[in-house]
């Protein structure tokens, strides 16, 4: 038995068109579009293109970057030149007016004017008032030092009252000595600030030495027990003797303060 093979015609698929190279679309003829030519290769480009796809030229508003830089430089130079010329011309125009404004007429006689009987008074130039320059910290330290002296004088008066009392209070004397010690430490800080001012440096050194002596006397006294009346009676007398040098230094501080126009209270006296 013979089997006849039937050949079937194969259907050929239509050949696909070759892929076309993708190129950048150019919006030529579209609505609301403006086209210009590349300044290097003359390719049509859409307004706003920053780089030509053909030659790679960088563009700024349709102008090559190199040319745009040259144009901008020329514009800047022209602007500076024009501005300088206008300013120089305006200065020359105003100069005669300024010179005329400062010209003072002579005091000689005027033809046709009636003579005056009043004599001419000589003109005197005002004397310059010297200005004392004081650093702000030194000025403040001087004022506060006067306040410290006032408190130390009050402490000396309190110690004298404790010694004259019928019943001696060692605890009260110890509290007064602690207050005096604190004021003396603060006074030393103020004295160092006054040393920054050359004119106040001598006073600052004297006050610093005095405050240091007051502080040392208070430290020596406060090591005793508050039950030791004898020790605190002696400490009160010692502190009063140390504070006896306060009026002279306080007077010197107030004199320096008055010399630079500072108004301080009355002098302190122990």
Mind explaining what this structure looks like?
The strands form two sheets. A two-stranded antiparallel sheet has the order 1-2. Helix content is 52%, strand content 4%. The chain has helices spanning 65-101, 136-164, 170-194, 201-221, 229-242, 246-259; strands at 35-37, 44-46, 59-60, 63-64. It has 270 residues and is mostly helical. It is elongated and about 120 Å long.
Give the DSSP E fraction (strand runs of 2 or more residues): under 5%
Helical proportion, percent range = 40-55%
- Stretches where pLDDT falls below 50 for ≥5 residues? 22-33, 97-107, 110-115
Major β-sheet strand ordering = 1-2
Count of helical regions:
6
- Counting DSSP E segments of at least 2 residues, the number of strands comes to 4
Described by the principal axes of the CA atoms, the overall outline is elongated
Largest sheet: 2 strands, antiparallel
Order of helices and strands: EEEEHHHHHH
Average pLDDT works out at 74
Which structural class best describes the helix and strand composition?
mainly alpha
| Radius of gyration, in angstroms, nearest whole number | 50 Å
Please give the alpha-carbon distance between the first and last residues. Answer: 154 Å
